[in-house]
Amino acid sequence: MSLFKYLFTVTVVSCCFLCRAQGQALTKQYYNEPHRLQIHFTPKEHWMNDPNGMVYYNGVYHLFYQHHPGSTVFGPIHWGHATSRDLIHWQHQPIALYPDSAGYIFSGSAVVDHKNTSRFGKNGKVPLVAIFTHHSVKGEQEGRNDFQNESLAYSLDEGRTWTKYKCNPVLKNPGIKDFRDPKVSWNEVAHKWIMTLATLDHITFYSSRNLKDWTKESEFGKGTGAHGGVWECPDLFSLNYQGKKIWVLIVNINPGGPNGGSGTQYFVGDFDGHQFTPFDKETRWLDYGPDEYAGVTFSNTGNRRLFLGWMSNWQYAQVVPTQKWRGAMTVPRELSIKKVNGKYLLASTPVPEVNKLFNRSFKFKNIPATNFELTAKTGKLTGPALIKMTGAQLKDLSITLSNSLHQKLIVGFDESKNEFFIDRTQSGNVGFEKDFGKRHTAPRLLQTPNFNCTLIIDKASVELFEGDGLTVMTAIFFPDEDYSDISIQSKSALNMESLTVSSQN
Ligand code: FRU
């Protein structure tokens, strides 16, 4: 390891907001910069995009991520690394994978090879195996179409250090320019590893017994789902719905998302160990907001299916006005299947661990939301907040966050259109990209009149979950002064049976 790399890795080993909770000393600027999210994972400094290789092992969640440690824009991409014991307090770790002569380290996944199928394990140590895309810039510049190939690295010390496999790549590109983001999982039926790979405008499934030799199984997706852009970062897993196994295929797409730019679509269906067959051909979105992308799930989490996305959009990710760092992750979310009008839909809700971040709650009952100045009851907002609302009948609703500069963000529901919206047209600094300052919408998918809404508000982000997570929206914003006021309005006299506002002391 070069001296530079050594010094860098030593300096980045510091706590994320765990330090804050423990009251340890932090440098003056770190964590106090404008727009620095407080309860979402952000890199200590420099550029971050997709979450990668998320895996749970021996009580520790590992989050790797696309990282350029030399700049706040995309460049030579490494795998950054962070760990957590509870999904919400993260600790920065040394960089896990550096670019090499085969290229940058693009997105991918990690598995626990319990049975040592790869034979990377030594002296009884279970190998963690990362499967990622080697992106050759040289090959790209030469105009070749095989510059993305799939490679392996393994760790025998529970994810602390990684060794690249000497016979990389393990899956060679057959001549498809976009051939990337392998998501690997063990399939009980096929008794093999299945790799779900994004291959331009469709998914290609491969199988392997040892993670090293891969055989093509099938393709899915040409002409099905959204095709406004290239398919990236897929994921395949099953969820149990009342004893029935439902397979979910996540496909991120950029551009062509539901509100422009990047987005996460999904299909529900069946996977027989060889082929994915969707139940229908409708396009569905896991998150309708503009700022959840490249989201995939953790491996090795038993019955829980945990999802995390990058909280940005390629439309403007590289020009958002943060200074020392760029990029954040969504809160971890738990996925489940719900049945609506005879269709199986994917729902996501914040993991319950998120509740632990808040130690102060205000509870209200039967609030007529005609014009409810929440701040007058709870005091000014001084940090992250969690708002939960329920009621018997959803009607028009606007929740406005504002500051003394009259900048505001409005999250709400438009009854006449049966849609949710996040309006950031007047949210503050919106001028860095022409499409940023917009009003974004999402259909309400819950079919019953009763509502349950959760909002997670951090310094520069909002996440909305409604109908047990059937409609989800994520958006980022950049006010010139932190929002301090919340008011709730409804022109059709909405009654909130319960309203809980939680914050941090
Ligand atoms: C998605 C993506 C992936 C790729 C990575 C590069 O945001 O484009 O397809 O592997 O980012 O950083």
3D architecture notes:
Helices cover 5% and strands 47% of the residues. It is mainly beta. The chain folds into two domains: 17-350, Glycosyl hydrolase domain, family 43 (Tachylectin-2, Chain A); 358-503, Sandwich (Jelly Rolls), CATH 2.60.120.560. The strands form seven sheets. It has a six-stranded antiparallel sheet with strand order 23-34-25-30-31-32, with no helix packed on it. The chain has a six-stranded antiparallel sheet with strand order 24-33-26-27-28-29.
Structure characteristics:
mainly beta, Tachylectin-2, Chain A, Jelly Rolls, 2 domains, six-stranded antiparallel beta sheet, 4 helices, 5% helix, globular, binds beta-D-fructofuranose
Strand order of the largest sheet: 23-34-25-30-31-32
Terminal residue distance = 43 Å
Can you tell me the overall shape?
globular
Query: How large is the share of residues in beta strands?
Result: over 45%
Listed once per kind, the bound small molecules are: beta-D-fructofuranose
| Uncertain stretches | 1-26
**CATH architecture name of the largest domain:** 5 Propeller
CATH topology of the largest domain: Tachylectin-2, Chain A
User: Can you count the beta strands?
Assistant: 34
Structural category: mainly beta
CATH class of the largest domain: Mainly Beta
How large is the radius of gyration? 22 Å
Mean pLDDT: 94
Q: What is the percent of helical residues? A: under 10%
Number of helices: 4
Number of domains: 2
Largest sheet at a glance? 6 strands, antiparallel
> Which superfamily, in CATH terms, is the homologous superfamily of the largest domain?
Glycosyl hydrolase domain, family 43
